[in-house]
Amino acid sequence: MATKQQVRASHILIKHQGSRRKASWKDPEGRVILNTTKESAISQLKSLRDDILSGKANFEDAASRISDCSSAKRGGDLGLFGPGQMQKPFEEATFALKVDEISDIVETDSGVHIIKRTE
């Protein structure tokens, strides 16, 4: 159960050329990531976010197919976390969301994300 100091969130991460780690569970060699511009990653996520908000796509299903984070295996679920446990832009965006709300595009050193607060 989330406390005032903790939130629970799921996310979809798309890595790009500028990401600090150029590999992921679905791209262990980093070939796709090295050829993905930040603009292209943002554009993919914006389109996906629109599909989720319009009901054409399910957040958890999309996360398990598309996210470059290993949390994809859990539908993007990151579990509970508190202040200081995530990169600052990610943390600030998550804490600003209401439960079940989906963020706009959030940029971190890991790549670009959309975040869904779940608790």
UniProtKB/TrEMBL annotation:
GO MF terms held by the record: peptidyl-prolyl cis-trans isomerase activity
Please provide, in alphabetical order, the Gene Ontology terms of the cellular component aspect for this entry.
cytosol; nucleus
Q: Which domain of life is it from?
A: Eukaryota
* Cited InterPro entries: PPIase_dom_sf, PPIase_Pin1, PPIase_PpiC, PPIase_PpiC_CS
Please verify whether the record's keywords include Isomerase. yes
Which Enzyme Commission number(s) are on file for it?
Answer: 5.2.1.8
Alphabetic keyword roster: Isomerase, Rotamase
**Reaction catalysis annotation:** [protein]-peptidylproline (omega=180) = [protein]-peptidylproline (omega=0)
Pfam families cross-referenced by the UniProt entry: Rotamase (PF00639)
Q: Entry's PROSITE patterns? A: PPIC_PPIASE_1 (PS01096), PPIC_PPIASE_2 (PS50198)
Q: Which residues form the PpiC domain?
A: 4-119
The UniProt similarity line reads:
Belongs to the PpiC/parvulin rotamase family.
Physiological role: Prolyl cis/trans isomerase with specificity for phospho-Ser-Pro bonds.
Name it: Peptidyl-prolyl cis-trans isomerase
Q: Which organism is it from?
A: Chenopodium quinoa (Quinoa)
Q: What is the lineage of its organism?
A: Eukaryota, Viridiplantae, Streptophyta, Embryophyta, Tracheophyta
Q: What gene, per UniProt, encodes this protein?
A: LOC110729796
